[in-house]
Amino acid sequence: MTPEAQRLISAHEIDTEHFHLETVLAGLCYANIFNFPVRVNELKSYLPLERLTTDQIQQVLDLLVMQKRAYVQDGFYSLHQCPELVAQRKSRENTSASKWVSAVPALQKLLAFGFIRAAVLTGSVAANNAHKSADIDLLLVMDHRRMWLGFAVIRLWARMQKQCHPCPNYVIGDNQMKLLYPGYFTAVEFALAKPIKSVERIHEIQTHNAWLRQWTPSARSLWDKAESLPQDRRWYHRLIDWVVDSPVGALLNRLEFKRISWRTRGLYQPNPYIFKPHSPHRSIHIHQALFEQLSSLGIDDSDLGKHLNQSLSFLVAEAERWDSVQGSDRQAHSKRHWQ
To answer: How far apart are alpha carbons 201 and 248 in whole angstroms?
Structure first.
């Protein structure tokens, strides 16, 4: 316990606002949804709406541990005392590091394609919480003129990899940088991400999506986490880039876009330059689970609670659009999934 926290506790001068209890509790609640014990520095990526220093966060954690509203083991903090989760977290840290090392050679080749303008490592590997069968999740910024053909090439190339399985789960064109489904879930996912190609273009994403930093203002900057990988360019990169950039590539790009639009009934096409093959239902489920935890702690009627409600209203509208496109059968399945 820090001396400052001990002084205030001993003097019975605990000031809830001073300790920023709601913000830190909300961050712990969010991590708890994923059964994810966190270190102090990691918790910064989960803290919503309020920018806190490491010392401020540590003071709150000391207080919560003293009150037995949070628990600490080996430097990991959580809402519940569970040594098994801490052991699992340590194991997954090692798995994440191993997956990253084994994925680097494949990613160096992948990022050598000219139509990939920028790349960000996302998902469990970026969060240091990968299990043995986890994919290497990526957000890719593509040349918007050949985005769909390039995406098809990447999917085909990824299937040929034996050491790792790159998974481009978010693809956007370089002519627009607005992300789908604004909210706490997407902001945390981005706060945990690591740029691996063209950091300056990833900065454009933050510029065009100011809500990212509004949700997670305490998170480390992209520059602190960036690791630009050297590109391993081979003869087939030049050949494929030439085909993709040719008039034939333009035709194939249009055909692939029409195929994707037909296969998904236009669902993944709010505009022709963004592709996120996941519904908003997962974001809704996370927001609802967090709101329930905040309610159980008596802090749902706060600025965070109001922001969550506003975000939920938007996401529910997006989910209704998704369900209307997918049809009543899929709509019922989707609602069962997140309710």
So the answer is: 28
Q: Which residues, other chains included, contact 109 with Cβ-Cβ below 8 Å and sequence gap of 6+?
A: 231, 232, 234, 237
Residues 142, 152: Cα–Cα separation, whole Å = 12
**Torsions phi, psi for 149 (to 5 deg):** -65, -40
* Percent of all residues in the chain with a pLDDT value above 70, rounded to a whole number: 86
Outline where DSSP puts E strands in the chain. 71-73, 76-78, 116-121, 136-142, 166-173, 194-197, 274-275
Q: Measuring CA to CA, which residue among 127, 141, 142 is closest to residue 185?
A: 127
Out of 20-29, 106-115, 277-286, 323-332, least confident range:
323-332
For 109, 115, 242, the CA distances from 260, given in Å and listed in that order, are 26, 19, 23
Given pLDDT bands bounded at 50, 70 and 90, which one contains residue 265?
low
Q: Which residues contact 188 (CB under 8 A, 6 or more apart)?
A: 30, 45, 46, 215, 216
pLDDT in tens, 19-30: 488 889 999 999
Query: Parallel, antiparallel, or unpaired: how do β-strands 136-142 and 166-173 relate?
Result: parallel
Query: Distance between CA atoms of 11 and 33, rounded to whole angstroms?
Result: 34
Cα separation, 238 vs 256, whole angstroms: 21
| Owner of token pair 């063209």 | 198
DSSP string, 48-117: -SS---HHHHHHHHHHHHHTTSSEEETTEEESS--HHHHHHHHHHHHHHHHHHHHHHHHHHHHTTSTTEE
